[in-house]
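Researcher: For the record, we're logging two predictions in this thread. I'll number them. Prediction 1 follows.
Model: Prediction 1, sequence and structure:
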Amino acid sequence: MVTTSAPELSVDVAGNPYVEVFFDPSGLEPDTAYIRVVRYSEGREWPVRGGVNIAPGVAALDFEAPFNVEATYRAQMFTATGASIGWTEASTTVLEYVGTIVHQPLDPTSWVPVDVMPGSVSPLTRPEEGTLVQTEGRDVGVWIGSGRRGLRGVGVSLQTSSIAEADAFRDLQGSYAVRQIGTVCIRTSSSIRWPRTFFVRGDFAENDRTVRFGGTKVTFDARVDEVEPPFPGLAVPLLTYGDLDAAYATYAERDAAYATYTDMDRDYSLAGLAG
């Protein structure tokens, strides 16, 4: 076995903040056919969306990395037959960002900056489901439980600052034209006792604060439950071939602009050019 290398980590906060995780193929085991990228943060191991069973040389963009806490990345390597051939070395970074972002996990290009409002300061409950069984010969009952669960019934109050942002927040969980899952991801730098990467499900009530008076403030309030990240193997790419086609008139011009196809696939400055 070769000595594997750690991933290259790059932070981008120009839009929806993310960490790019890239493993140089030369630093992987020679028989590696695909890798699975994981992140360790806040005492948990997370599969990195867009980094599940990817080919060597493909970068994963982690739009679920928490703000202002350490995140450590490494990958498990597999052969073409699915046999594990070990783990890479690890790298650690901090995604430094001030603010709160809510986005649709299956489409991180659908995101909204918000403010955390006072209504979000509420008791946090992590229940344990089970049954109290009273057995003969015991003065007290025996608790048969399933272990502690995630947060339940958390009060969340988030405010948008423009009509466009309010419309975008409204559509995060789907619209008349686009069907979408109801789970959203909340990441915040606010000093609040939520997980830094907080996946929730709840029905947000839209409340007009100042729009009827000519303003732009709208709040979205809900009681939410913490849930697992949905379908971590699914991800909408930030950069598409349509973006590349929009940037270059010919394939020859495009090929001449990059030393390798990997460099081309990582040119996120072109993301969104196709509209």
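Researcher: Logged. Prediction 2.
Model: Prediction 2, sequence and structure:
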Amino acid sequence: MTYHNLLFTLAVLFALWAVMAKKLLTSAIMLALVSVTVSLIFFNLGAPWAGVFELSVCAGLITVLFIGAVSLIRSTEEKHPESRAPFYALPLAAAIFAIAGWFYLPAFFDELASWRRLADGSGTIGTALWDLRRPDLLGQVLMLAAGVFVIKSVFPRRTEK
């Protein structure tokens, strides 16, 4: 249980750091660390294929592409600094989520532990995906949401003057 809490806490801290970072390169590296943490969660929950996919594709390939794109656009971004004032409310939101997580995550982990079972190789893909691998889908959705929030925060809408 403590290991789960540590991994989820690290994932949240890395995600917040990715959103709060002033440099795009730091955001990309923090997203890679979120992905590594999520892959460790997958391995710990008995989903090695999802863990390998998360580690190789999200932490590896996508991070390399993102860092490459950041290095190409860095010079134009440094010429036009933008206000980061709206992001100063993020620590308050993180504190609210941490307090809520303190109460809800232990029951969530107990439920996840009750779902852990090995697939016997029979059945349909729907059964494997929606019944046996529900925690994997939750992790993928959380990774997607973290990526969307970081992209929205580092590439805000620009107004034409």
